[in-house]
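Researcher: Last one for today. Full complex below.
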Amino acid sequence: MGVLKAEPARIQDWANRSVGAYWKAYDPQLAIYAVLLAGLGLAMSYSSTVVTGVNPLDPSSNFLRGVIWTVIAVVVYIAATLFDYKWLRTFTWPIYLVNLGLLALNLVIGTGVGGAARWIAIGPLQFQFSELAKILMIVVLASYLAQRHDRLGSLRVILGACVLMVPTWVLVMLQPDLGTSLVLAGILAGMLFLSGASMKWLAILAGIVIAMIPVAWTYILRDYQKARLIGFLNPGGDPQGAGYQLLQSQIAVGSGGVFGKGLTNGTQDALAFLPVGDTDFAFARLAEELGFIGAVLVFVLFVVLIWRVLMAGYRSEDRFGTIFAAGVASMLMFQLVVNVGMVIGLLPVTGIPLPFITRGGASLISLAIGLGILQSINIRQSRAEW
Amino acid sequence: MVAPGIVDERPARERQLVRFLAFGIILIVAVLGLTARMVYLQLVNGTTYTQLATTNSTVQQAIPSTRGLIYDRNGLLLVSNQPSYTVEIRPSDLPFNQRPAVVAQLASLLNMDSADINASIDGNPGSTFDLVRIAAGVPVATANLIAEEHLDLPGVQVTVDALRHYTEGALMSQILGYTGAIDADTLKRLKSMGYLPDDLIGRAGVEEEYETQLRGSYGMETIQRDATGRQVQVLATDKQPVAGDSLTLTLDTKMQQQAQTAVDWAMRASKLKSAVLIAMNPQTGEILAMVSTPTYDDNQFANGISNAQFQVLLKNPDHPLLNHAISEQFPEGSTYKLVTGSGALADGKLTPTTLVQTKPYIQIGVDKFWDWNRRGFGRINVKTGFAHSSDTFFYQVAQMLGIKRLAYWGKQFGFGAPTGIDLPGEVAGIVPDNQWKQDVFGQPMQAGEVVQSGIGQGFDTATPLQLLNAYAALANGGTLYQPQVDRQVTAPDGSIVRPFKPIVLHKIAAPASVFTTMREAARMVVTVHHTYNLVDEPFVVAGKTGTAEFGTRDAQGRLPYHNWFVCFIPLHGDASKPDSQLAIVGFNEDANTVGNSATEMVKYFLQMHFNAKKDLRRFDLMRIGDFYGGN
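Model: Here's the assembly. Have a good evening.
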């Protein structure tokens, strides 16, 4: 617990060295790409609300809730930008404990579909703490790895990062939330890789994880999770059961064609053939209504957004900034590939949301925090040129 | 602790740049992979998937046909269809966070327990897109209320079904049966015939036996559905439903009511566990009345019987769901002497005037086979033997016939095989012979068992319907008919699909004189005052009583017994003529009464049927007590 002992000195240290915000270094591209993606997400939410016959301005409509969450997210984003990210290292351990506390609370009082404990209702809004856990763990891991940047070739640091992840991972698995636990693993792997950890040890660890898959299959995965994984391999085998979503989402995507059917003209989701159409399968609706053009637009926006995220990290003088950006980039890329891969039948159904597009307040807030911190990194470097 | 390696020797910053670039390349490759799949789905196969998408939005659904009605022989409506409102939930349309509120509101509207509604939703075996039935038989007012509130009750639907209504309630349940939800095995079997998972099917009685005729054929329509799966419009009617045929039964409701009244009285007076009364026309095999108690009300099933109610019926040791008239078999007792006597006459072992010495008992080896009358009757002929029901007379006649011929004549009279009545669940009964005994017990019939078989004891068993049918053959001069409960099948347009036609099983291979003799003997049963309690009635009855022992002996060495009475009413009062149009069997299970309670029960029925001025019922005979004081 050497970190805790060193704390008073570090607070002093940071306070002295902290530079003021240098707004010329603010990255408008990062903000623009994020806003475009969030706009697409709201458009899909609008479409989904309209075709199910609900007035989009009805207080209980998913669209209006999406708007409220977007407004909250913008406020959070601005606050995170204004906040000096260098303080985050100081508060690493409190953040870590708050994260575990919230996840534990979620397990106790959370509700969800089919016995799962996923959400906590805050008034009319539902909040999924496992989404917040992603960004909080990126902060914790970035802080941990940055402090040990000179020892990244050692197995100890790599294992330390993994051990740090275990409690969060277990709490998320208990909900059970297979999707988020996979994203957390993806974030951990991405951050270790991008921070420059020893390839040899990473390769060995990856080998061990792959070898553990049969064990996880037998002891950790629940039957419905297995059914989804098998359903992916043979969706036609049980078209009314496990393979149903997969077949329907591929039909939705395929029927979109080049230009799509137009916003609110999707038939698959509208006719309830596509279950949870504005959640994990939102991309299917997007591809159906906006077509190949819309889908490729989403891909391009994600690629350029991740590029700006990585640039922020590359420009950061301190290791924390670099590794934090690596975490955000890993999260975005992992969720993009796994979610879209699921919707178009390349990967199994794992319940991972597509950032910005999938409806969900916590996911949006989590992204707002991450991107806000990246802007905070951008504007708080001593050499603020591009 | 820095691991050695080429990578680690380069400056950290440069190493990180390499990793960032590698990450970028992985990202680009992954996104290109996704794009390739999108090209395949949307550009290469776009047309195919568009077609798939449109077939999804229209579905074909069955249009149920109107189930056929059922009438009694006089055109009285016994079974009709009534509109019934069913409340259902499609779980996929019920948002999870609204579920508690919706369930609570439904619970208060339907006056149900929230827990039961939740259990129905969670226990739904199908997918979340399948409708789950919450309540059937909902009152119209409640159904309208729920339909009006549908905006506050997402996922909840009210549908109108046609429910069966059995106008006579429990009176006809054993014959009519009921319809119920189709089970998985039956569905698998009948799916090709258009049965649906939530279909109703005849589960007992006439409803089951005539399922095909009553059901008609379902139509088919193509409908378009909206976002919530609700039907928007009918695009096309692909096939019109054809209503089911109606049935006109052979039953006479009035006689059925009289039979029920008589049986209910016997049940009460003698504290019986179960009783049967069947009336039939011996000239045609038409069943005029058939009562089996205890029974149930088929309307319970029509309205959707609760599991608790069903368990009560299932756990009742006297099997109210079972039609004891055809689905249970009992020893015939003395009524079987018809077979022994007729067989011996036909085989020439006896003539109507042959005298046989009766005794207190006959001895076979060390065993004594007693007459019920321990003094014996002296030297008597077959009519007197039958009239007084002498056991030793028929023991000796059975010995003359031998088991092979005795069994042959049993089968000639229809015993040992189902009568083929148009009701499900009929059992065959037993006519023992050497082959049967060998198959079941591994040895031939013993001498003592043969004489017992001659008086319908030992291994012999029959259903009340079989016994009635045998005496009906006696009454009509030797023709064994297949009993029928359905008289006619009528198409919805009124044309007759199947008119009534008596079905002859076979002619019993005995000369007409044998039946004349035995009919006279049956009439003597009353005239010699053996069945003294029928002597003073204004109608002429010819019949035979039976006291059939079964089970295990009590402390005094006595066996419990069933009471039988089977008879026919000669049309003009002359039993020697084969002109009877009414034969009746009465059966009281495990009766143990002072007199023959079955005779009293049938007598009461006949008093009502013939509008007898005086009620001559003998309540004293109905008491529980030792019958062996006299028969």
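Residues 1-9, 238-242 of chain A have pLDDT under 50 and may be disordered. The longest strand of chain A covers residues 120-122.
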